[in-house]
Design goal:
By secondary structure, the protein is of the alpha+beta class. The chain contains 17 helices and eleven strands. The protein has helices spanning 17-20, 26-37, 41-45, 59-71, 77-86, 88-93, 106-119, 121-135, 176-187, 244-262, 278-286, 346-351, 355-358, 373-382, 386-394, 396-407, 418-445, and strands at 143-152, 208-210, 218-228, 233-241, 268-270, 290-292, 312-314, 319-321, 327-335, 339-344, 366-370.
Amino acid sequence: MGWHGGEQSRLFYSFNLEERIPTSHLLRRINPIVTRILTEIREKLKPFYSEIGRPSIDPELMMRMLIIGYCYGVRFERKLCEEVELHLAYRWFCRLDLEDKVPDHSTFSVNRHGRFRESDIFRQLFEAVVKACMDAGLVKGEGFAVDASVMEADASRYHGKAPDEIDWSRTERRTRAVAEYLSGLADAPPDPDRKTPKVISPSDPCSAWTAKANKRVQFGYALNYMVDIAHAIIVDVEATPARTYDEVAATRTMIERTEQRLDLKPDRLIADTAYGTGKFLGWLVGADITPHIPVWDKGTREDGTFSRSDFTFDNEKNEYRCPDGKPLRTTGRVDQGRTVLYFASKLDCSRCPLKARCCPNSPCRKVPRDVHEEARDRARELRGTPEFERSRDERKKAEMRFAHLKTHHRFERLRLRGLTGARDEFHLAAIVQNLKTLANHTGSRRPGEQAGGIP
């Protein structure tokens, strides 16, 4: 049995921090990519810093610290500063020597709510990482998968109130999140399709009252990802309240923005039934994007009477034919801006032997037809094809992104409030996930290269 002895400590040590970080460490593998991307960050942020006063903290250092925090699930600024203070690999990645001082946690609040948000630097950093993935050949642009996952907001689910019960003029309500919410109400145009929320949070009113996550009711935001299915690279990200209507609308925003900023447009879009609305499918077909999306159809009846699918539509005559062969015609009036109603003749229905199975409680049968029904029919034709079945399996790549984020990065509840706070956090999460994928793939593709690094 050995004994660790020695009464005199060494007076001098030869310590090289560079040699202490193994080549296989995640931070060493992503460091060359981050270094290349952050070279221009100082110039982009220069207009947001004052030329007088004390020198501010290097923005590249703060960005590196935030990347560490979202890589390892340390999203509390105070805890992150403590970890960087003690962890050798964190210090090395942040380019801090053993005697260098770590920034105070309060510095993050000033920059995240001020300079970083005003400069939209997180969005620029995210797009720079996507372009790096494109340069590495990891983005094909042939097929995109879109999905959303609910992240719990930093708001108590026990303190929700009706919108007309909250006095926004009270001192404790004068926060960034409330100011953003009130500003959005003043600037938003009226939308007949959007329902007024019944319950909102006084502390984070932009979040939505939802029961999607964990099967319990809570306030939350939707993390919307659009993923290139070739290597599961996140090509766009958007934050919305956790409502299906907003999630579908965000998909159109992401597709248009990706085409404009990155010159990427998919040949096909993969999504679940929540995205199979007539309006969205009509826009996809009009944009020449093949919708590999199940149609959201509520025309099937469960009471034993004929469903809408039992009626045949004649495009040339613009009329339906009932199971008895009688026509259903329309006046052309669009109901609620979404559907056109087709009515059968009362005389035909009164004499029809199938009336008991068609419209037993009304004098005549009416059938609604979506104004984008042709696009819905196009999506129905694709279902069941080998290409559609392959896309259904590939959609799991988007779902796995959310699973990894919640499991490996411990990202289930937001730290920042307001829609802009959620957007900042979602951008950082997507940046970290793309960096890890890029480091892993480029490392495996280049023989002789050091453990995923880029020269």
